[in-house]
Amino acid sequence: MLDDSYLATDCDNKPQESCGVFGIFAPQEDAARLTFYGLLALQHRGQESAGIVSSDFKQVNSVKGMGLVNQVFTETKIKQLAGALAIGHTRYSTAGSSVIENAQPTLLDSSYGPLAVSHNGNLANYTELRQELLKKGHCLNSQIDSELIVRLVIEAHGRNLKQKLVNGLSQIKGAYSLIFLTKNKLYVVRDRWGIRPLILGQINGRGWVIASESTAIESVGGHVIREVKPGEFIEISYKGIETFHQLKSKSGGFCIFEYVYFSKPESIVNNKLVYSARLKSGQLLAREHPAQADYVISVPDSGTAAALGYAQESGIIFQEGLIKSRYVGRTFIQPTQRIRDLGVRLKFSPLQRFLKNKSIVLVDDSVVRGTTITQIIHLLREAGVKNIHLRIASPPFKNLCFLGIDVHRYDELIAQTHTGQEIMQKIGADSLGYLSLTGLKQAVGRVKHGLCTGCFNKKYPIV
Ligand code: 5GP
Ligand code: MG
Hints:
Elements: H1 4-13, E1 20-25, H2 31-41, E2 49-55, E3 60-66, H3 69-72, H4 75-79, E4 85-91, E5 106-110, E6 113-120, H5 126-135, H6 145-155, H7 161-169, E7 177-181, E8 186-190, E9 199-203, E10 207-211, H8 214-219, E11 223-227, E12 232-237, E13 240-246, E14 254-255, H9 257-262, E15 268-269, E16 272-273, H10 274-288, E17 295-298, H11 304-314, E18 317-318, E19 322-324, H12 337-347, E20 348-350, H13 352-355, E21 359-364, H14 371-382, E22 387-392, H15 414-417, H16 420-427, E23 431-434, H17 437-444, E24 451-452, H18 454-457
Parallel strand pairs: 14-24, 17-18, 17-21, 21-22, 22-23
Antiparallel strand pairs: 1-4, 1-10, 2-3, 2-4, 5-6, 6-7, 7-8, 8-12, 9-10, 9-11, 12-13, 15-16, 19-20
Helix pairs in contact: 5-6, 6-7, 10-11, 10-17, 12-14
The structure holds guanosine-5'-monophosphate and magnesium ion.
């Protein structure tokens, strides 16, 4: 287990990322265009910047920019990205690091030609590895994991790129779901704990597609083959697909928060439909924390499946109470607290006609800082709601995450600094109930390599 000093150092020093990655090797296809569509399907995983690097076997081209996938890529830009190979990235980042230098994919020149990478995850021993590289005389342009990853690979021992990938990446402790692009090949690698998802699919019989979530594969007309295994190294080329190395995998690593919040409900993660896990979590929440109310109301969209589950189990009517604007981004993703505060008001409109003088069960997927829920309760009170029984479809979020959830300091976690009673008062709820960790695990069901639940119980997989 890691102790707190380890966590504090690494969480404070550098941006954390929970991103979306996509890659495609498909002769006869416009790979960059399909990557653009794939990134749209992964937009929920990051809204700060987006990028695509493509290759037509001769030349490698790159387009990156700040903002949403749709804002970065115009028809002209997509046309600059010729070729049958492409990788893409949507980035989530935190304060101070919202700059173009940190946008991915990262592309560097090497003795093997251009080498680009898209990375999802967070390296726990980033600081150590960075110091070692700097000591050896290397320069680093950015503060992000992906640049460090490419440099580690280039400088590792090995007679060819495959060996360098194995030797370079096995030094890393932490979460990495990676797609590399060279002029004529893709390499796909997942850390030995399998912390972040990574799925492999096929397209048009002859092409291959890789993505953070199954929904992105399906949205470009591909079909899912399987998950990339924890510790697996895959090469994709004209010869087909080959697993050329397998690190000894470790159990207990898959991030349970992917089921709670990160992944899209329609995605299938570890053979489990995320929507089903959320629905079930709501049902169990109703059993663990019943309430008397006129309606069950969700905080859309991430709380909706759990709210429906709560309604099914309790028999209380599910009613839409907050209408969410489709055109305002995820508030949590906005880097400063001020924008976060405003964002919630811009994003939700209460349906006063249904809410006035009513008692409601309000269901959300999680409370982290407590910002979202405080503002929502305020809006609901203004709309005349009488009683608010807040139910959260995951346990109290009490611990830092150094593997990709954007939390940096203990004092920003409301469940760490306040008791349940204090939280209730602070956010203005009449009652509060969290789903137990046992309940959440039951909702998710058996996951082949086991789950990381560090944010809830401080048990981290990496030693
Ligand atoms: P809070 O406002 O309490 O800090 O965050 C909780 C709310 O943000 C919930 O409504 C949840 O759906 C969403 N959320 C929870 N964790 C994350 C995260 O890591 N990233 C983003 N973008 N949103 C989150
Ligand atoms: Mg939410």
